[in-house]
Amino acid sequence: MQLLKWVLNLLLVCSMLQVFPLPLAQTICSEADRAALLGFKAKILKDSTGSLSSWVGKDCCGGDWEGVGCNPTGRVNTLALQIPERDSTLYMKGTLSSSLGSLQFLEVLVISGMKFITGPVPESLSNLSRLKQLVLEDNSLQGNIPSGLGRLSFLQTLSLAGNHFNGVVPLSLGNLRNLVMLNLGRNSLTGSIPSSFKNLVHLQSFDLSFNLLSGFVPEFLGQFHNITFIDLSNNQLSGHLPVSLFNLVTLSDLSLSHNQLTGSIPDQVGNLKSLTSLSLSHNKLIGPIPASISRLQKLWSLNLSRNGFSNPLPAISSKGVPSLLSIDLSFNNLSLGTVPNWIMDRQLSDVNLASCKLRGAFPKFRPDSLSSIDLSSNLLTGTISTHFTNMTSLQKLKLSNNQLKFDLSELKVPDGISSIDLHSNQVFGSLSSILNNRTSSFLEVIDVSNNLISGTIPEFTEGLSLKVLNIGSNKIAGQIPSSISNLIELERLDISRNQITGTIPASLGQVVKLQWLDLSINRLTGKIPTSLLGIHSLRHANFRANRLCGEIPQGRPYNIFPASAYAYNLCLCGKPLQPCKGKQQEMVQ
């Protein structure tokens, strides 16, 4: 009888559920999780992203709370707040609340790109035992990396890059045996790479770049058989390249640049059959570049610049390194004489052979693919006037510190070129051609300083993109055109050591992005216009050795620049020089 009564009650409940079904809101988020999220929100003092303004109401799992995700039982398992790269207007300001450690079911925690979230990583995050992804990139977090993070045994992704962390890398992170991606780059971490990291055998991406790490590149990296990306660049690592590193057949990207590595490149480098990018620049490596590098079938970027590599350069056949697009052998102890055929005959995009003791006429590259050429600091001679006519992809041209001799007005460059650096050659002629409307609409950098250029400074039309204009140390005469105000993007202007006359135009004060200004050693007269006080970003100015007179603009930064910036003029006065005589008379009265 009791059983029958229980069955009847069950049927009654079921029938009521059909008539009055329970709302989906039964999966409303846990009150404890909601409180933890609001605790995080309370520590964010300003949110220009507007994300946290959506965190209202009782249901944090209903889809309205931006960045919050939940599991079917109403427990928060995802918190992902991320700002797109290069958006400087969006940020959060505040600290990370320890309440985040109460989100017991959290599997994904991403707070990235907020710029102004400061303070330490709360120790309570070590309690998030289900966490698989922890990404706190590009904030302003500081202090030590908590050793307790080593208890997050399910963690697969850990990125704390782009913060202000210091101290040593915790040994405990070596306990994270499920890690696939580890990024601690762009901090101020010190000490050596922990030996406990040998346990991280599942790593596919390993980035400790832009820190202050010392010691050796560890041999155990050769045990990471699944790894595709290693970046230890911009540290203070020393010692030889471990041979074990060159047995990683899955490795596609290796950067050890900007360290203090010594020794030579092992012949085993040819074993890296998946390698697409190799950067060993800015080290102390020596010896010849091994011929086995020609076996790297997928390599498209090779940067060995600023080391001590010496001849002979390997003789590579037309079938060697078939994917190569970018090569940089600049500033070694190489004495090439001419550009090797295996470089000349390829469809490369970037060729950088600065200070390789190249001699003679400018080499004839294949014109259809090159976007950047740097053959500076060599012994090239003759003209280059028509070499670039068909290089329609050319963006950057750097041929400074050579012995090139040609008329600048005859130089033909592609319409879309953005940077031309010809300083310290024997270039003559005028500036008018290189600054015409067709050529200069995309130009951002022009450096033709320390040449034999004459004529005058041409008028500047609207719509120019110039950020750097350096025409110093030439034989240019005439006046500074008032149309210089059209260079609204200009950040650096150097017309020093010429024969410029007339006054400094007041319109120069409209070039408000200017950071560097050098007008020294000319024949300028009149006053320094007070309109220059409108250039608030100026960090360096030099008016030395002209014929200027009158009061120096009395406002920052002009009145705090060193006196040497105004020396050897006719009668400049006012801070940082002596007071002007008129003001002295007022003081006497």
UniProtKB/TrEMBL annotation:
Residues 97-208 form the Disease resistance R13L4/SHOC-2-like LRR domain. Residues 31-71 form the Leucine-rich repeat-containing N-terminal plant-type domain. One of its GO terms (molecular function) is receptor serine/threonine kinase binding. It is found in: Cell membrane; Membrane. It holds the Pfam family LRR_8. GO terms for cellular component: plasma membrane. Keywords: Cell membrane, Glycoprotein, Leucine-rich repeat, Membrane, Repeat, Signal, Transmembrane, Transmembrane helix. Residues 1-25 form the signal peptide. It comes from the Eukaryota. This is Leucine-rich repeat-containing N-terminal plant-type domain-containing protein. SUPFAM superfamilies: L domain-like. Gene3D superfamilies: Ribonuclease Inhibitor. It is a single-pass membrane protein.
